[in-house]
Design goal:
The protein is of the alpha/beta class. It is 37% helix and 16% strand. The site of pyridoxal-5'-phosphate has 14 residues, from helix 5.
């Protein structure tokens, strides 16, 4: 039965929209009412090519039958099971499937409902892990400038995006930050990983010297920083971070909420860069963005540190009502099957060179000061309008939407991350339309 809903509600006031210019939006709403594969349908009946996989999450494209049917079936069979002290088979099955595609050495899955919750979980695990091993002084957490780790207190504390932090008080104590790796003077218009900046990992040594390794629990970084406007790891940088953390007994957490599930052409960034962290935070592509679900993936060493004391005792006092929710788990299994059956991670790797060339064809257009890419991620950085940062890129976003493509902007950076099913012709449409937009920008 069709739902009795108007495509555009009369009153938009009640819904306080997240990360949105509410007043601007409500004056001229951009309303999506349907989606299929690479396209959204708008409330005024237009097709919009999805250049962002929703919010970096619909890696298999939209309304994929296998995922839709799995959700429908699961909702009718077992809608919910208590997450604590009870289990259901679907969550266990999904965990095994995740480990099948995870890097060798990653063996356990702790479920959450979002990227933000995965980050909070991983940070708590890091501190509790050291405590469980008798190193209770290791409580400091190290993030990175311009890092994005969701919006909860731990995540914004280790995160490094000023607008996400400055409104919210003093945040977590005992947090420090490494410098970001955005070096436009040296690396502008790099294709793939930039040449310069691996030495910035050595800043971690400086922080270790400042605080003492024995006080530091973990370092968290995105293998590729996405939400800040796509900042890539310079060649050798992640390897150095791994070596330094290992040397000092500090855990390394990769926040793979964006890089997980095929975005770089491998299941995870850890495999793409061949660097094994101690934990990985995931969400988004785990269920193709269709049902909220996240997961923290850990090594056996992390997990086993907690498996002590009497058998009847709860080992970790942490978890969510919806951890491993049956419907989300069913969506996750169907999503992983879709990725595998259609070889979507390999597809992303195969089409990445075409994506790279198309993207860099925008070089030389008005206001373009840098272009960056890796896997199926691309960013076009624009020169800001003097005194009005963010305005030029936001205008590009609005004009692009009018012309039938969905892009994302952060500051004056345009970021794109299409579903992994994108065709060469659709890449041409996306980049060609963006070129037209850039030529008309103020
Ligand atoms: C690297 C990273 N971590 C965490 C998050 C937060 O995820 P969520 O919005 O699901 O809480 C995001 C979201 O974009 C992200 O990119």
């Amino acid at each position: 039965m069709a739902l009795d809903r108007k495509p555009t509600p009369n009153d938009l006031n009640a819904f306080w929209m997240p990360f949105t210019a509410n007043r601007q939006f409500k004056k001229a709403p951009r309303m999506l009412v349907a989606a299929k594969d690479m396209h959204y349908t708008t409330s005024d009946g237009r097709q919009v090519l999805d250049g962002t996989a929703g919010l970096w999450c619909c890696n298999a494209g939209h309304c994929r039958p296998k995922i839709t049917e799995a959700i429908q079936r699961q909702a009718a069979e077992l809608d919910y099971a208590p997450a604590f002290q009870m289990g259901h088979p679907v969550a266990f099955e999904l965990a095994n499937r995740i480990i099948d595609v995870a890097p060798k050495g990653i063996e356990h899955v702790f479920y959450t409902n979002s990227g933000s919750e995965s980050v909070e979980t991983a940070l708590k695990l890091a501190i509790a892990y050291h405590r469980a091993r008798g190193e209770g002084a290791r409580t400091r957490l190290i993030g990175r400038e311009r890092g994005y780790h969701g919006v909860n207190f731990g995540g914004i504390s280790v995160g490094g995006i000023v607008t996400n932090r400055k409104m919210f008080g003093t945040l977590l104590a005992g947090v420090d930050h490494m410098p970001h790796t955005h070096l436009p003077a040296l690396n502008a218009f790099s294709k793939g990983q930039p040449e310069h900046g691996a030495n910035l990992a050595d800043e971690l040594e400086r922080i270790v010297t400042l605080h003492g390794a024995e006080t530091i629990a973990a370092v968290i970084v995105e293998p590729v920083a996405g939400s800040t406007g796509v900042i890539l790891p310079p060649k050798g940088y992640l390897e150095r971070l791994r070596a330094i953390t290992k040397k000092h007994g500090i855990l390394l957490i990769f926040d793979e909420v964006i890089t997980g599930f095929g975005r770089l052409g491998s299941a995870f960034g850890a495999q793409h860069f061949d660097v094994l962290p101690d934990m990985m935070t995931t969400a988004k592509g785990l269920t193709n963005g269709v049902i909220p679900m996240g997961a923290v993936l850990t090594t056996a060493d992390i997990h086993n540190a907690f498996m002590q004391g009497p058998d009847h005792m709860i080992e970790l006092f942490h978890g969510y009502t919806y951890s491993g929710n049956p419907i989300a788990s069913a969506a996750g299994i169907a999503t992983l099957e879709t990725y595998r059956e259609e070889a979507l991670f390999e597809r992303a790797a195969d089409i990445a060179p075409y994506w790279e060339e198309a993207l860099h064809s925008l070089r030389g257009l008005p206001h373009v000061v840098d272009i960056r890419n890796i896997g199926l991620i691309g960013a076009v950085e624009l020169e800001s309008i003097p005194g009005e940062p963010t305005k030029r890129a936001f205008e590009a976003f609005l004009r692009a939407y009018d012309k039938g493509i969905l892009i994302r902007t952060t500051g004056d950076i345009i970021a794109m991350s299409p579903p992994l099913i994108i065709s060469k012709a659709e890449i041409d449409t996306l980049i060609g339309t963006l070129a037209d937009v850039l030529k008309t920008l103020p």
